Amino acid sequence: MGAMTEADRAPKQDRSRVTRQRLLEAAVACLAEHGWAGSTVSVVAERAGVSRGAAQHHFRTREELFTAAVEYVAEERSAALRGLFPDAAGGAAGADRAAVVAALVDLYTGPLFRAALQLWVAASNEEQLSPRVAELEARVGRETHRIAVELLGADESRPGVRETVQGLLDMARGLGLANLLTDDAGRRKRVVAEWGRLVDEALR
Amino acid sequence: MGAMTEADRAPKQDRSRVTRQRLLEAAVACLAEHGWAGSTVSVVAERAGVSRGAAQHHFRTREELFTAAVEYVAEERSAALRGLFPDAAGGAAGADRAAVVAALVDLYTGPLFRAALQLWVAASNEEQLSPRVAELEARVGRETHRIAVELLGADESRPGVRETVQGLLDMARGLGLANLLTDDAGRRKRVVAEWGRLVDEALR
């Protein structure tokens, strides 16, 4: 405490948080665009407009920066997804389930998914990265499953319901992959409409 | 023709075909294990026990070698899949559909899928590779869809059936991705059992 007042300290903490956030966002964009091989702490620091020293104050290693980045954006996206359906707690009506399925699939087609995919594939070839990314993927997967169950109003005590929701999220992941090299939006829309219907029926 | 008899020519063609095949198989194994960055023509030639010159006689560029490799193995796997269900032409019985779904998913969990994934992700960052891989992916995707429709006995003239089959293949792709960093066999088996049932109901 000493001579430092609340007003002095807050802006410094704010600046630090803003710097960290800028680094994380730049890291995801960099990973999605250039892949793991083209993504270093220096490249990210430059993109974020932060000195290399400041970047290393926040993240000691490249692995730390990029796993933190994917985790940060996954959390942001989860929060946004919950925000889309504020009244869904306790169970979506049948008519809403198709919208929830479409929103879940959307999670897998943006820059976050591209960045996560680059990280997964890099981790599959790099032992240093692999355990950390596997742990991150498991955590993000569990959280996404929890949100999906809640928004779909799925009763997991019924046999098969848990696997129905898991398969839906696997499909969303596969649709994200299909969108990697070509714009797959037209086909995806039709598949999502039909599977939205199948999932709704299965969960009734 | 001249002095060269049929008997002289055939073994030479055989040897050339065998060399080509060894290169393609080594390329897929190399891509699955080391990723695009670690996969060069020299590395593959050494793994296949073929001289670099002989390798370049068959494939002029790295891009040519690896897209040919993924295509070759995809064709082998398609043939093997058809071979599993020789009596399915004209439509699988309901009881068989679950087995067909499981076999389709298996296509996405072996070294071929890992190799293809490495190629897709590399292509998303390399303009030289991207159009060729996108074209290959579209071709392999159409062929897999055709086989799936045939083995499942799916009537695509009925609304929604085409999208049901497409979504199933997207799910298979997503399950392959989930298997990249951790052994996901236990969870996958339960998801495949449940969705085998749901797809069977949807296609009746």
Automatic annotation (TrEMBL), chains A, B:
Gene Ontology MF terms in the entry: DNA-binding transcription factor activity; transcription cis-regulatory region binding
Record-annotated DNA-binding residue ranges: 40-59
Keywords recorded for this protein, A-Z: DNA-binding
Protein name in the entry: Putative HTH-type transcriptional regulator BetI
Every HTH tetR-type domain range: 17-77
InterPro entries recorded: Homeodomain-like_sf, HTH-type_TetR-like_transc_reg, HTH_TetR
One Pfam family, short name: TetR_N
Annotated SUPFAM superfamilies: Homeodomain-like
